[in-house]
Amino acid sequence: MIVQSTSPASRLASILVLAAALAAGCAKPPPLVTLPASPPSAVVFEHAAVVDVAAGTVAANQDVLVTGTQITAIGDSGSVTPPAGAQHIDAGGATLLPGLVDSHGHIGNSPAPPWAGAFPDPDRNLQSFLYCGVTTVLDPADMDSDAFERRDAVAAGKQMGPTIFASGPMLTAIGGHPIPVMEELAPWWTRWYLRRHFARELGSDDDVRSAIDELAEYRADVVKIAIDSIPSSSPQLSAGLAASVVKMAHAKGLRVVSHVGSLADALEAGGAGVDAFMHMVYKEALDEKSAASIAAFGKPVVATMGVFENYALVGRGPRTPTQLEKETADPAELAAFDHLPEGAVSERFRDFFELLYRNREAWRRNIRLMRERGVTVLAGSDVQSGVFPGPGLHRELALLVEGGMSPAEVVRAATLDAARFLENTPDPSFGRIAAGKRADLLLVGGDPLADVANLAKIRAVMKNGVLIERHPVAGP
Questions:
Q1: 8-state DSSP, 434
Q2: Would you say the pTM of this structure is higher than 0.70?
Q3: Which residues contact 107 (CB under 8 A, 6 or more apart)?
Q4: In the chain, what are the domains?
Q5: Residue 176: per-residue pLDDT
Q6: How many whole angstroms from its chain centre is CA 370?
Q7: pLDDT (mean) for 174-198
Q8: Which residue from 208, 260, 183 is spatially nearest to 229, judged by alpha carbons?
Q9: Considering only CA atoms, which of 141, 32, 20, 77 is closest in space to residue 383?
Q10: How many whole angstroms separate alpha carbon 128 and alpha carbon 244?
């Protein structure tokens, strides 16, 4: 069911999606996911290998019973008695683990290349997340009230999608990130609107107070600030205003996460008291001392290696789509990345992409250095051009392994550790397979603790105790 929103931003988004469909002369594509007409009251997965994400181990030949929206029993096969009418799933040869969490999943962004002229389709993004086994998303910047209306609609069962944690508009310096990016990528006739509704530009403590009051009224799950310059010539939020954001947000019970780019950015954000870093340091290589300085803050880092890898490789040859991208994205949209039009990237952003390309190996080393010093790394894709909702997280998990994390650590980064951060508790209601936990589950072929690529071999996705019906764009 599609929720009809009355907010100005929602109305504009609906108009843009409709305009794009009309311009393309085609109807809305078939859904990627649907709900069963009559879901059973109970489901039992039989003979599954079950991942204990906390311990990083797998228990063979287990039965897992789901009743309603919760996991109600786990035991050796044959020891769990399902109620009459339960649906039996033969999970022999497959592995059951918690649904994945994308800790940087922009629902209101478009993954298409800017030169393709596509507009964001949030409903399609939500479907794509679910198709790929992502059952929870932290949306760390979106249009005004849209993010919160969407979050509440999914929670109420009025809209299909992963559980959403949302920040709403990003807080930034006047003219700071993401303003230059929007001016570079968005159609010229939408930029004025996006600037007003996607970001809150801060020039004083009064601006901070107004923004925090607004986000508190929306019951934001987190507040996001930007401490970075993209491109390097753009303004950046001052340390004083960053500290004001944290102080005023914490006073209202709101946690703060910060986009960062350089070591100096991370130290400024950490010194201001933010609760998480929404990127690793990606503009430079860390050494042991600087990695330790970040670790000393004791806050998680959402690495987002994939988004930087994506931009680093722009214009450097064809982009090879993954199987999940082929199954969820428009083939023409995927093919559009292979040919960079003349003038598609401005001079100032070409320099930024070159910096990213030079630092590709540094990111991998930065992750390893931080992990060695006890930093909790969370998995997030940062959905935008070239980073597809759902498949982008799977790409990110592979890159985290390249950064020295074990498959078990990567799985935990995309399940339990993320759930602990989002619910701000060591014992969250989701993110692990245990009795009493929310039945958000992913059944895959092979052992993901041996190879994270097995996470993409999806056999079943369960959200809130209901098995999702998946409909690929293209067959395997």
A1: -
A2: yes
A3: 122, 125, 126, 137, 139, 142, 147, 150, 161, 164, 383, 389
A4: 42-98+432-470 (2.30.40.10), 100-423 (3.20.20.140)
A5: 86
A6: 21
A7: 71
A8: 260
A9: 141
A10: 37
